[in-house]
Amino acid sequence: MTTFDLRTLRLRPSDERRIDREVDLQPLALGGQEYVPEPQTVPTALTVAQAVGGRLLTLRFQTRLSGPCMRCLAPAALDLRIRATEYDDEEAGKRPGEDTSTIYVVDDVLELSQWAHDEVALALPEQILCKPACAGLCPDCGKDLNVEPHTHEDVTVDPRWEALADIRDLLA
Fold first, then answer.
1. Which residues, including other chains, have CB under 8 Å from residue 48's CB and lie 6 or more apart?
2. Strand (E) positions, 90-132?
C-alpha cells in the first residue's frame, strides 16, 4: 500500500507542489473475475495545492487492466487514463453537518493506493470486452461465436405447447 505524508510538504496558502511517485495498484474483482493492472506499480503525478482552508489534491496516471472478456471469456485489455481530484478540508469535522474532506487522507497521510484503486474502478466501462463487436458465447452449446459463428434450429418443442401445435395444424 502506497501512502504519502502530506506534512512533509510544509505548504503555505497558494503554494503548489508536484510529486512523482510510484503507486502499487491492487487487482479488481468484477463479476467473480479478476482484472489485473499492468504494470502493478504505476508512475503517478500527484499535485498538492494549499488553499486557505484545505488542500486540493490531483492524481494523474495511466494503466492497462487485463482480464477475461465479459462476453466470451477471451483475454481482454483496457487502457485507462486517470485524472482524479479530491479536496482535503483541514477544518472538517469542526463544523456540524459539514464534512467536505476526502476519505483518502487520514492524519495527514494520503492513501495513494486506495485512491488510485477506486479511481480505476470508477473509470471502467459497463463491460470489459476483447473487441467492441464481441459476439460472446452460444447460449445453447457454449462455443465462442467469434471463432465459430453458428445458429441452432429450434427442434425441441416444450411438451406443454404440443396441444397448441395440434390446433395450428387443424386451422392451416
1. 6, 9, 11, 16, 17, 19, 55, 56, 57
2. 105-106, 109-111
The three three-digit cell numbers of residue 107, written as one number: 492524519
At 56-105, the pLDDT tens digits run: 999 999 999 999 999 999 999 999 999 999 998 877 655 555 566 789 99
**pLDDT value, residue 99:** 60
Q: Which helix (H) or strand (E) holds 118?
A: helix 112-123
CB 128 within 8 A of CB 78: yes
How is residue 53 written as a grid cell?
A: 482552508
> What's phi and psi for 7, nearest 5 deg?
-65, -25
Residue 144 DSSP symbol = B
How many CB atoms sit inside 10 A of residue 148's CB? 10
Can you give the pLDDT at residue 113? 95
pLDDT at 92: 62
Give the pLDDT of residue 102: 87
* Beta carbons within 8 Å of 155's beta carbon, 6+ residues apart: none
CA distance 60 to 71: 30
Angle at 150 between CA 147 and CA 156, to 5 degrees: 140
State the Cα–Cα distance between residues 145 and 165, nearest whole angstrom.
32
Identify the residue whose cell numbers are 503555505: 12
